[in-house]
Amino acid sequence: MINLANLLRSPLLVLSRKNPFMLSRLTFFYVILGVVGGLFSAAFWMLIEYLTQFASGVSGILTIPFMTVSGLLIGLIIHFLGEPGEISLVIDNIRFRGGKLEASQNPSMALSSLLSISTGGSAGPEAPLVQITGSFGNWFAEKLGLTGEEYRSMTIAGMAAGFTSLFGSPLGGALFALEILQHRHVVEYYKALLPAFLSSTSAFFVFLWMTHAGLQPTWQFPQYVPGDIQDFLYALLLGAIGAGLGWLFHGLFLTNRWIYSKIPGKIYWKTTIGGLVLGVIAWQIPLTRFFGHDQLNLIVEGRFTLLFLVGLIFWKTFAITTTVAAGWRGGVIIPLFFLGACAGKFLFGILPTENESFLMICLMAAVNSSVTKTPISTTILLSELTGLYSFTPVLIASLSGYFLSPKEPFIATQGKEG
What we know:
Blueprint: H1 4-8, H2 27-56, H3 63-81, H4 87-96, H5 106-119, H6 126-143, H7 148-167, H8 170-179, H9 193-211, H10 230-261, H11 267-284, H12 295-301, H13 306-325, H14 333-350, H15 356-372, H16 375-386, H17 392-403
Helix pairs in contact: 2-5, 2-6, 2-7, 2-9, 3-5, 3-11, 5-6, 6-7, 7-8, 7-9, 8-9, 8-16, 10-13, 10-15, 10-17, 11-13, 12-14, 13-14, 14-15, 15-16, 15-17, 16-17
Transmembrane segments: 28-48, 60-81, 156-181, 193-212, 232-255, 267-285, 305-325, 332-351
Membrane topology: Multi-pass membrane protein
Main location: membrane
């Protein structure tokens, strides 16, 4: 068996530290970590697509018992395999435990999130991918005998591989892995920036090779043609509207969290009731089901009444917060993008002379930044996901949504000082 620590000391890999322009001795391992992360992410994604296709065949009133039973199974997985953790714990471990993530949580996280995502929960695969690929980085760091910032950087590089594989943006994925850790002092992690880029880029190529996803944008928006300075003023207003949706999200999440915290007994009671609620909502409004990756294109291409869009915005927000509060596993980034797209579609119905893509993308950025506190990486991710080539107004909307967002972060550990 190859000893990674001995390989690290090999003359082929140990390059001079005195020359700042020479590659790090760890460069090889950041690339290999990205390859491993990309392989896992592609396999995870393909399995989600297969299971989702199967679950999509269950529709109508049958959605209610199907998602209720799914909730029970999710709770039983967590009960018997242990608490899988969440993104708050990952951030806490990166910041205060030097980057140590527990690989023992991976089986519970992988199985519970696969079931949550594929059966129709309003949560996406970014959270499990980041936690699991981050733990790969943790394992690499331990086998290499790394300490301090090198240890932390290896874990962050693993996280970046997971983000990039899902979003198809090596730059945005790497920045997101850094920005989500501690939005007030992200500069503290600048040493992890190049490792994150190396890992995310290699993960991206592996993911593309395995899934045949291609380089085209994920969502087919009509191209936004930049206007004049008025676009910046509109972007500020759209950011404020996005922040308003962020406040709605925050309020519904606190309400749902309080309700589900009052449910006594084991966690499977909570996840089962959550499944029942999600099933009822999905039965009445099918577009609230699943995490929005495929459904967002339906919003872009479709035509809906204003009344329907208002209902969809509220009940999708309710579904996302129910998914999280009830203990179903997954991330909220793509569901928040879906929510912002619905809000942009609604505004276009009121202001049909405005650019539809501009309204939708600005609100996607503002809503996500309001909740996740990641205005910079959100803008870059959306430029890749939507094919946007002029993203400065979107950045303005993203920053506006961020600064007008609730002070108490949705991801609790973002607000901790350390």
